[in-house]
Amino acid sequence: MPVHRRSQLLARALVLTAAATTALGVATGGSAQAAPGSPDPADRKDVKAQVEQLYDEAEQASERFNAAQEAQRRLQGETTILQGEIAVAQDQLNELRGDLATVAGAEYRGGGMTQTAQLMLSPDPEGYLARARALGQATERQQETLHELVTRQRRLDQRRTEATGKLAELDEARRSLADSKQQIQQRLARAQKLLNGLGAAERVRMAVQDARDAEQRATRGTDRLDLGSTPPASERGAAALAAAVRMIGSPYVYGATGPRAFDCSGLMYYSWRQAGVTLPRTSQAQASAGQRINISDARPGDLVIFYRDMHHVGMYAGGGVIVHAPYPGARVRYESVNAMPVSGVVRL
After folding, report:
1. 145/192 same-domain check
2. Do the domain assignments include residue 205?
3. Which residues contact 336 (CB under 8 A, 6 or more apart)?
4. Is 311 designated active site?
5. Omega cis (within 30) before 259
6. Which CATH number is 86's domain given?
7. Domain, as residue range, for 67
8. In the prediction, which pLDDT does 261 show?
9. Which pLDDT tens digit goes with each residue over 239-249?
10. Containing H/E element for 78?
11. Is 4 a catalytic residue?
12. 324 annotated active-site
């Protein structure tokens, strides 16, 4: 992509960030003017640091939310399959028991229910089978039928045990989902309260300054974005990067995977889907989705995982720059790879 085009995208992201923050101020009841007694630079810096910390904590909770949501979907599907298998197995078991009842009925009508028939209808077919063999009271066909009954009963019991375990896991995933969602909401509310204390105009200035700072880091203080000449590691990597770059200017929304809004891992998930690759949903899972390489060997399209707990991810664009979805109030943008502590780089 030509450098001037990239610069245009950066400028567009800056304008959209300011516009979005202004709208946020109006939506939350903030005044269009700074409140009387506007905070001094030291106060603004303190608020910014607190808000960034809350956003960081909210993003950690968001990745836990994404993981719990994925687990819930998987477990729900597995539970549904198991319950279907249990229903089929129960029907087959009932059919076998019906066959045995038919045999017993015929014997009864023929002169009374024999000991063999009585044992065949026992609620403990496995015990019957052992006794029947010992007493020599069952024909070969009867033993085969009872053996099949015992086998199916065992499978049914196993499936029921598995289903019980899955339902317990599903319940835990739902609790985790609710807890993570609550943590996100609490931290966002606290951050918004701090921002509201600055007034709408001050919030706009803070957002614009943040976008400018990111641009300065990405361009190394120049007016040009130099992504270098290192080619992507693959055609799919090039396609994924192109998709991510097209999303520059899109808003950050927790749990979003596009096409109009994203969280950090959601942007990676969406971009690589455009290249025909389905990534795991969370940044922690994406960290294990491919080959780990050194940051010095990173090429365009590689995933860059940040922080020790790997709760943030971006895509390497070249020249020491990534494209990522930063946090609420900011838009998808270019950023220096050194703006956050790198945990690892993944090549798909």
Report:
1. yes
2. no
3. 214, 217, 218, 220, 320, 321, 322
4. no
5. yes
6. 1.10.287
7. 39-197
8. 97
9. 999 999 999 99
10. helix 41-109
11. no
12. yes
